[in-house]
Structures
1.
Amino acid sequence: EQLSGASNKLAGKRALVTSGPTYEALDPVRFLGNRSSGKQGHAIARALSLLGADTVLVTGPTHEPDPVGVKIVRVESAAEMLTACQASLPVDVAVFAAAVADWTPAQVATAKRKKNGGAPPSIELVETTDILATVSKAGNTRPRLVVGFAAETENLVANAQAKLARKGCDWIVANLVGGNTGTFGGDSNEVALVTARDVETWTRATKDMVATQLAARIADTLSK
Ligand code: CTP
Ligand code: CA
């Protein structure tokens, strides 16, 4: 009877989580990336799985260990992450914790770019597809609960509320980055849970604790 009580609140439910950075190729050896560690997203996948959810983790390149019991789909680019997320639908809840590149090179060189004595190349970028917004507006296959993240350096709550409305998700987990709040790579996180109705500021906690708290909230909401 180890699986009774808190550990089976999400039994029979399906969850999708994105995590890590994306890598956008410039040529066969170079990419544009970011410093996301994947710690928060991986912890959320682990926490949902511990509550009994059938969990798929779509992740960019990280050094995090694979969460036990979670189906892992490894991707590199934002475009690959979108395809993998769409392939994992339908789910009951989707949590988009990945730091998806906002821009990707317009062209990927098929051979390594070489210095040839001229001026440095400039790189033309195009915007990536917003995975969170796409899944939030997916019609028939929209998960019942869609949770996004927002990393902001200022105006945390106002920016998060604007993102919630623009993207059409249900909740935004907002956190301040930069300065001493250092989220990227760190083990703790100070977040606000922003919904259409209200804003809850959570006390600073480890990323594992934030994940556990978020998974419990998700379980409560899906049980109603
Ligand atoms: N996101 C996504 N696909 C993208 C860009 C962002 O799914 N192409 C998701 C992130 O995983 C996160 C949320 O959108 O859950 C917000 O990401 P964020 O970078 O804070 O917002 P942006 O809309 O990209 O706005 P900006 O970076 O300009 O603040
Ligand atoms: Ca962004």
Note: The longest strand covers residues 145-152.
2.
Amino acid sequence: AIQRTLSIIKPDGVVKDLIGTIYSRFETAGLKIVAAKMLQLTTEQAEGFYAEHKGKPFYDGLIAFMTAGPVMVQVLEGENAIAANREIMGTTNPDEAARGTIRADFATATNRNICHGSDAPETASREIAFFFTDSEICPRREVV
Ligand code: CMP
């Protein structure tokens, strides 16, 4: 089924100038970018987005990292977009990620893993709504 998923290129991906490379991988895989914005997250925004991780040992470092510089946030649309994006990204720990995935190719550690992708339909809906209003999402139309 056609799905939407939320993708974030994290501060390490932006600072390594990987926006174009990562967008190219999405587009090559048939994932359409239907919304996008660059943001400098506030601590409050990062805490809200990652609320489910509050209290975990990596939480404070995660919030500091995600607010250390701009992120690129996008909505991807396509067939099985949630799983497709996770396949393109590779596993959370880049040491375990399959060759040719974004994290295997560019990430240095689990806490410097270049990108985020929603892990399930309910999370995708919540995460998309966290960053985008309905009118900011622009599905494809035929153009003559
Ligand atoms: P992400 O998909 O953005 O969701 C939570 C993030 O926490 C995860 O990617 C990792 O970058 C980060 N993180 C840091 N340490 C850990 C850890 N030990 N286990 C899981 N996630 C971690």
Note: The chain has a mean pLDDT of 98.
